[in-house]
Amino acid sequence: MRFILVDEILELEPGRRIKALKAVSRDEDYFQDHFPGFPVVPGVLLTEMMAQAAGKCLEAEDHQRGRPMLAKISEASFRDWMRPGETATIHAEVKNSRQAFATVNCRIEVEERKLCSAELFFTFIPHDKFAPGYRDEVLERFLKKTATGGTGSGA
Amino acid sequence: MVNQEQALDWLAKVFQEPREKITPETPREAIGSWDSLGVLMLMAELDEQFKIILTDQEMQAMKKVGDVLTLLRERGQLS
């Protein structure tokens, strides 16, 4: 099982904000258990979607300080359900970013519905802790697209 | 600007510790959440609440709650 919870970056201002998408198929395994007859995306996965999007925004700003890692969910609230087959629009805005940490305000919407929001706290792990050559393929795809003149920064 | 009681309330919230456990004499090692992540959380809260930006060395030099109060006082944030 892969754990990539951002499909595509739509807009990115490195270190400031990001807008991204994640589509959830109708046949995800976890819908069998969460819950029978009432399938909804677990809150932990919604939180991870926000964390991954926010992490890409931070990493795009300053690659040298390391890879952003979720260290604390300062607050989170879940107002509505995400159903099978829906596509989440993930927004993240960096509230505070320093060399050693960052806080990011995030939210997820499906069309006009506001599903959830969270304030996430990140620390940074040196790149040499990870496998050599490990790259963020979703972020790299977006940066490559914008570098070749595709739609991009959205700034 | 805050007074000492308000500052202690704030520190208890930052470290998620019972308020009665937080006094000026409380040493860092008595606060379980004042670990490496706690240091970063405190740095972030000082920045956000009081616009105080510290280096890692300055943060590591703090050995007890009273050191944080002294810092706030020196920076004009504690009455």
Question: Rough shape of chain A?
Answer: globular
In which range does the helix fraction of chain B lie? 40-55%
> Taking Cα atoms only, what radius of gyration of chain A do you get, to the nearest Å?
16 Å
Major sheet characteristics of chain B: none
Distance between the termini of chain B: 7 Å
H/E order of the elements of chain B? HHHH
Structure, explained:
The complex is a heterodimer of chains A (155) and B (79). Chain A is α+β, with helices and mostly antiparallel strands and 155 residues long. Chain A has helices at 43-61, 137-147; strands at 8-13, 17-23, 67-78, 87-97, 101-110, 113-125. In chain A, strand 1 (8-13) and strand 2 form a beta hairpin. The model of chain A has no long low-confidence stretch (mean pLDDT 94). Chain B has 79 residues and is mainly alpha-helical. Chain B is 53% helix and 0% strand. Chain B contains four helices and no strands. Classes of the chains: A alpha+beta (155), B mainly alpha (79). At the A-B interface, loops of A face helix 2 of B.
Task: Give the SSE layout.
The complex is a heterodimer of chains A (155) and B (79).
Chain A (H helix, E strand, L loop, with lengths): L7 E6 L3 E7 L19 H19 L5 E12 L8 E11 L3 E10 L2 E13 L11 H11 L8
Antiparallel strand pairs in A: 1-2, 2-4, 3-6, 4-5, 5-6
Chain B lengths: L3 H12 L20 H15 L5 H5 L4 H10 L5
Quick summary:
The complex is a heterodimer of chains A (155) and B (79). Chain A has 155 residues and is an alpha+beta fold. Helix content of chain A is 19%, strand content 38%.
Give short descriptive properties of this protein.
heterodimer; A: 155 residues; 6-stranded antiparallel sheet; B: 79 residues; mainly alpha
